[in-house]
Design brief:
By secondary structure, this protein is an all-alpha fold. The protein contains 19 helices and two strands. It has a two-stranded antiparallel ribbon with strand order 1-2.
Length: 484
């Protein structure tokens, strides 16, 4: 038996292997296609112009392709639940592993909370008379009880589906992603049949600042391919194939977003974009001259909410479970449901956060996006660095999928991924004229989440070196300390 097979066999944690090729692919792709394409497309077009926005997604997508390629080798080598947690603890030890895993868990949860706020916002488009019993006003938005409860009830339902098991969650994912693809094809048809090329002008606007503002949201919109590694122990495929699905899902998402931006731009003049709250929906309604098609896009938006929400609840709960099992977080987060074999307490914790999010109002959408994006990029950078370290320190490690061939191609890819993700993170810092402008609420959310992670990080026992046995050594020390 090979080293890789031995590692996989030794790391079974009782998860049910229920996911096939389409299930795994649609989990990753569906995670990347949330609700942002419905509510934010108008901002992208206004801020950067048609070609500026498309170029921003191509550039951001290329960055994500490099990161996804790095992930593909890592998940094939270590196909265990928890993804980043496993890669980082082996490459850089427990403290860095906790910091990076906690950062991307925050990014995942930010997406879950975003979708919880997006649900009532979408429902209001379909049913205008949903706002009753005003609670308070946040950032000029009146929060009504009936509006917020729509998001809260949906949060409870999504959490219940995930507790019931990964197979049920994946069935929901596959069905809804199929509908999303249908909506994208309808937009493509509408743009080709009813669009006007002159409406796509101006092709560029906003200069470098407008372009960077769009690039800055790409990590939030593309995060999701890495949910596949989180569920690796529940995928019944060879490790190398799991790795390839990561890259394929990224390419599918790039294609989807380019179609959405291009076809929406053809529907109406740029001067009219500001008059539409949900531009993509109104675009299809305009091209087919019927309100029905706008409602179809909104239905697609709801589908995107479900796929993204479902996938990130799945990924974040597995990450919290992995950290708890390793002794990094309280053991409470590491409990599996006795019947469904899902991380029930982690799902409940994240479900509660998402159930509360709608009570922050519609303004929370922007805050949450901006708070989650830099946290996600931190994790991508650390995984890229960890990839380089493992290539140098453990050249003989089992790698069923070795990117870049037998030479130094893999090191080049890993280095490019590390440099690009570091540059992307610098864009968030207010140190250049072109930096992304994050609201103080976003920095507060980002800082608070990282502060909690740092608190847990400094509670870890010291003296544990990175390597294949790091997690076992950490857990042994934690158990010893808990007995005292």
């Amino acid at each position: 038996m090979s080293q890789q097979q031995t590692e996989v066999g030794d790391r079974g944690h009782g998860f049910v292997k229920a996911l096939g090729t389409v299930d795994a692919l649609f989990i990753g792709f569906g995670a990347m296609i949330g609700f942002g394409w419905v509510v934010l497309t108008g901002e992208w077009l206004s801020g950067a112009g048609t070609m500026g926005a498309i170029l921003a997604f191509v550039v951001g997508g290329i960055i994500m392709c490099f990161v996804g390629t790095v992930y593909s080798e890592m998940v094939a080598a270590m196909p265990h639940a928890g993804g980043e947690h496993n890669y980082l603890i082996r490459a850089m030890g427990p403290k860095v592993s906790l910091f990076g895993s906690w950062a991307i868990t925050g990014g995942y949860i930010s997406v879950v909370m975003f979708e919880a706020v997006a649900v009532p916002k979408t429902a209001l488009y379909l049913f205008p008379n949903l706002e009753h019993i005003k609670l308070w006003t946040i950032a000029d938005f009146d929060v009504h009880l009936t509006w917020a409860l729509i998001g809260t009830v949906t949060a409870i339902i999504i959490a219940w589906i995930n507790i019931r098991g990964v197979k049920l969650a994946s069935l929901v994912q596959t069905f809804v992603v199929s509908f999303l693809i249908l909506v994208a094809l309808m937009l493509l048809t509408g743009g080709l049949v009813g669009g006007e090329a002159v409406n796509a002008e101006p092709l560029f606007t906003g200069g470098a600042a407008g372009f960077i503002a769009v690039v800055a949201v790409v990590p939030f919109l593309f995060v999701g391919f890495d949910v596949i590694p989180q569920s690796a122990e529940e995928i019944k495929l060879p490790p190398a194939k799991i790795g390839k699905l990561v890259v394929i899902s990224v390419l599918m998402a790039i294609t989807f977003y380019i179609i959405i931006i291009a076809m929406t731009s053809l529907a109406m003049p740029a001067s009219e974009l500001a008059n539409h709250d949900l531009v993509t929906a109104d675009a299809l309604a305009t091209m087919f001259n019927s309100a029905f098609w706008g409602k179809l896009v909104i239905a697609g938006g709801l589908a995107g909410i479900i796929t993204s929400w479902n996938a990130f609840l799945m990924g974040s709960s597995r990450l919290m479970w992995a950290m708890a099992v390793a002794g990094m977080l309280p053991a409470w987060f590491g409990k599996l449901h006795p019947k469904y074999r899902t991380p029930i307490n982690s799902i409940i914790f994240i479900g509660i956060l998402s159930a509360l999010a709608p009570f922050l109002g519609s303004a929370a959408l922007g805050w949450i996006v901006d708070a989650g994006s830099p946290a996600i990029v931190i994790a991508y950078f650390l995984v890229s660095v960890g990839f380089i370290i493992l290539r140098k320190r453990e050249p003989a490690m089992g790698r069923p999928l070795r990117i870049g061939g037998k030479g130094n191609g893999g090191m080049v890819i890993g280095t490019i991924s590390a440099v690009l993700t570091l540059a992307l993170f610098i864009l968030y810092l207010p140190i250049t004229p072109f930096s992304a402008q994050l609201a103080w609420q976003s920095w507060a959310m980002f800082g608070l989440w990282l502060a909690v992670g740092i608190f847990f990080m400094f509670r870890l026992p010291t003296g544990i070196k990175a390597g294949p046995n790091a997690e076992d050594e950490l857990l042994a020390k934690v158990k010893s300390l808990r007995k005292k």
